[in-house]
Amino acid sequence: MKTIRKTIFAVMFAVVMSMPSFAAGRLSVQIGNFTSWKETPHGVLISAGNAKLSLTVYGPEVVRVRATQNEFSTTPSYAVITEPSGKFTSVKDEKDKLVLSTGELKVEVNKDPVLVRFYNKDGKLLNEDDPGLGISWLGTGTTCYKKLQPGERFIGLGEKTGNLDRRGSAYVDWNTDNPAYATNGDPLYTSLPFYIGLHNKLSYGIFFDNTYKATFNFGASNNRFSSFGAVDGEMNYYFFGGHSVADLLKEYTNLTGRIKMPPIWGLGFQQSRWSYFPDTEVLNLARTFREKKIPADVIYLDIHYMDAYKVFTWNKERFPNPSAMIDSLKDMGFHIVTIVDPGVKKEKGYWAYDSGLKNDCFVKYPDGTNWSADVWPGTCNFPDFTNPKVRTWWGNLYKGLVADGVTGFWNDMNEPASWGNMVPNLVEFDMEGHKGTMEEAHNVYGMQMARSTFQGATKLMDGKRPLVLTRAAYAGIQRYSAIWTGDNVASDEHMLLASRLINSMGLAGVPYVGADIGGFMGGTTNRKLFARWISIAAYTPFFRSHSEYNSRAHEPWTFGEDVEAISRKYIDERYQLLPYIYSAFYQAHETGMPIARSLAINYTFDKNIYNPDFQDEYLFGPSILVAPVSSEQNFGRVYLPKGVWYRKSTGKKYDGGQSVIVDAPLSDLPVFVKAGAIIPMQSTVQNTAQKGDGIMRLNIYSGSEPNKYLYYEDDGTTYKYENGHFLKREFAFDPAAKKITIGKAEGNYTSKFNKIEVVLHGFDAMNSVKVGRKTMSLQKGEGDTQTLTLDANNGETVLSW
Ligand code: MIG
Q: What pLDDT is recorded for position 54?
């Protein structure tokens, strides 16, 4: 009997194994050979043996590629805000390929098999599908394989650890609450699937707009291909052919949107911890900043301000009168940001929960019951932020906090995170009416929460700009929110990693980013680490100190007098630089150029900048080079790209194109200014609402190359700039013509500066200049500078010599 049974099983097993469908399901399927093509309104649709491929023009340098074995998805993109425009200007059907042109790009579609190749208009190959793998499917998963080009490097992909040059590494996009992440940990909290490929002095960009769990391989464990793919959904990517990294960023942010002007107070120093309470402690904290003359603008309230962690409530014992407290803080020039998590406590009688139930706002299992998971408040339900009605509902819940005077909202835990961190993949989402599961919604959940927060708060705040901060995000988040890099660790490695994370998010279109100063958790932040970290962070877009529950105090004065002095020095510097920083935000708003700029933006093909010894360096705004150095080092080896550089603190000049050893005591971070730089600064103020002495310090650094700078100013707190309520003027330095031009002001905002003090650096022998036709003598300024003070007026002023 036993043997017979065994034989029957063996035969059945053999039959099953030899069934072709069974075997085929386990092997990959390639797109196959060409069968036909036809024109579509903005491109072409190609049929191939195993799938269809569509190419759509979004602009002369932007082509969208989609491929599916079934029907194309109709769910709208959460990232893309522009429509296709234009079409291929020529389509040639040749024997073995289709040749399509946009004027700027040539796209070849090889026929047997179907493969896509991109060329620039000079006929140089930018990017091509791997000839054997191309677009493939493995079960529901789809991947596009690209042939590696000689010397190809990859940069970007957002909040990813590892090197600036991502060649040889692979990454996963799956938003993850990853506390105390390793310095090579992945995935982290956000998915920003845009990267740039560089080779042969050419650059291109790829944005893989698929929200499922995705994998990017930049030649990890292989020398054949780079690839991007996801476990489900369709192959859907945008190819950008730009002339420079800056061009690519402009195109990418044209597609996915740009930052609005943030509230200026969100560019000041921000003090947070888990958690400040009760109200008297918050008020004392604010007073201490003012007494110690350490400028600051924002205090954060972490989860303890709430009643039993229930969102949109106050703990009445700790904060009996929130609006009175916030009024007092306002009088001292402080804004309050409160944390708001997505989980709504399941508790009958709690108004936010009741209202969510009544309006059917929560994510459900397929059997119609609400998905519950445990997090800070206990068992919670989770709003479906992919439903427009739910976003409006949630946005309105901020009403009470706004009425109390809160002006900023911090969306944490929105990966979404819960205890156990294992969200069920089958729970269902609206997906703008197109329905989908957690597998598809997960990576956009945090972004849609931040969107709902931003839009709700904007509506409630009577024309004032809210500050929104999110931990989880997807491409396009820059339209709604700032990002911080989550639960980092108090270590030098993390401090240095933070620069790369921030720079890499800038390379993925997100300019308003920062990391917890001093490290959020792990060990104890020592005085050296805090001092160094706050100096570096003063030159990052989002400038906030934060630390975990039960950690030692992290306020700048708690590490001893010398660290207090260093903190004050760098925070002062930050406030002095605000006119320059704000103008850099305007540039981000207009062009997508980040504030913290990896050297790969301006020095793309200088191989030294990719050297791991120098890869943390970046430009802060157009002309300040920051070289992070660990807190253990008193000297730093810094790579200065080609050109001439001034050490900002001493005025000492260096020739670029080489690495230099510089001293780097804790009190003097290596920071350099590019020759020719134009840097508007102001007097030290204690918060961003103060006017200071009304004098703009227009710093000009002598150099041999001409330079132009766009200065921007507005009220800093409303959206009136969208209707012309701003001031813009160009400052130009032309060394050959020996003149400096303060351009005519544009726009109808009146500058807060009534004087402009021109501060000349490195103009050694000069003792007078002509202003118009009048000769004026220069005054000796600080260090080696010479100065000249002018009355500010809106007309053009020319200084010559
Ligand atoms: O489970 O709100 O990243 O900044 O202080 C931890 C408490 C929840 C994680 C955030 C951190 C915040 C903390 N939160």
A: 98
Closest ligand 1 atom number to CA of residue 412? 10
In the listed set 454, 484, 514, which residue is the last one of a domain according to the structure? 484
Looking at per-residue pLDDT, the higher value among 759 and 17 belongs to 759
Please check the confidence at residue 245 and state whether its pLDDT lies above 70. yes
Tell which residue, 346, 751, 6, has the closest CA to residue 742: 751
Q: Clarify whether residues 166 and 79 are in a common domain.
A: yes
The verdict on 174 and 277 lying in the same domain is: no
Specify the CATH number for the domain of residue 148.
2.60.40.1760
∠ at Cα 397 (392, 399), nearest 5°? 110
Q: Is residue 642 a part of any domain in this protein?
A: no
DSSP, collapsed to helix, strand or coil, labels residue 352 as helix
Q: Assess whether pLDDT exceeds 60 at residue 33.
A: yes
- Atom index in ligand 1 nearest the CA of residue 486 equals 3
- Cβ of 629 below 6 Å from ligand 1: no
In short, whether 486's Cβ falls inside 6 Å of ligand 1 is yes
Write the pLDDT tens digit of every residue in 522-563: 977 799 999 999 999 999 999 999 999 999 999 999 999 999
Residue 274 near ligand 1, beta carbon < 6 Å: yes
C-alpha distances (whole Å) from 631 to each of 565, 571, 613, 619 are 16, 18, 15, 20
Any ligand 1 atom below 6 A from CB of 341: no
Encode pLDDT of 272-326 as tens digits: 999 999 999 999 999 999 999 999 999 999 999 999 999 999 999 999 999 999 9
Local confidence band at 242 (pLDDT 50, 70, 90 cut-offs) = confident
Whether 617 is in the pocket of ligand 1, judged by its Cβ within 6 Å, is no
Helix-, strand-, coil-residue percentages of the chain, each rounded to 5: 25, 30, 45
Q: Is 325 in the pocket of ligand 1 (CB under 6 A)?
A: no
- pLDDT at residue 307, as a whole number: 98
Q: Is residue 40 part of a domain?
A: yes
Going from the Cα of 413 to the center of ligand 1, the distance in angstroms, rounded, reads 7
> 323 is in which domain, residue-wise?
269-484
Cα of 411 from ligand 1 centre, angstroms: 10
Please state, in angstroms and rounded to a whole number, the distance separating the CA atoms of residues 697 and 788: 10
Residue 298 forms part of a structural domain: yes
pLDDT of residue 19: 43
Structure tokens at 286: 């604010």
Select from 189, 274, 311, 521 the residue to mutate for testing ligand 1; criterion: most ligand atoms less than 8 Å from CB: 274
Whether 302 lines ligand 1, by a CB cut-off of 6 Å, is yes
Give residue 211 CA to ligand 1 midpoint distance, Å. Answer: 25
Residues 330 and 396 in one domain: yes
Catalytic residue numbers read 412, 415, 487
Whether the model pTM is above 0.85: yes
CATH of the domain at 746: 2.60.40.1180
Average pLDDT, the chain: 96
Instruction: Give long-range contacts, CB 8 A cutoff, 24+ apart: 420-427.
Output: 420/373, 420/374, 421/176, 421/177, 423/373, 424/365, 424/371, 426/365, 426/366, 427/363, 427/364, 427/365, 427/366, 427/371
Q: Is the pLDDT of residue 178 over 70?
A: yes
pLDDT score recorded for residue 421: 84
Q: Identify the domain boundary among 465, 484, 503.
A: 484
**pLDDT at 625 > cutoff 60:** yes
Top pLDDT among 182 and 242 is at 182
> Does 28 score more than 70 pLDDT?
yes
Are 245 and 279 within one domain? no
Which atom of ligand 1 is the closest one to the Cα of 549? 5
Give CA–CA dist 701/677, Å, rounded.
5
Residue 25: per-residue pLDDT: 57
pLDDT at position 14, please? 46
Q: Residue 9 C-alpha to ligand 1 middle, in angstroms?
A: 55
Instruction: Indicate whether 311 and 407 sit together in one domain.
Output: yes
Q: Which atom of ligand 1 is nearest to the CA of 417?
A: 1
**285/244 same-domain check:** no
Q: Which of 480, 429, 472, 478 is nearest to 456 (CA)?
A: 480
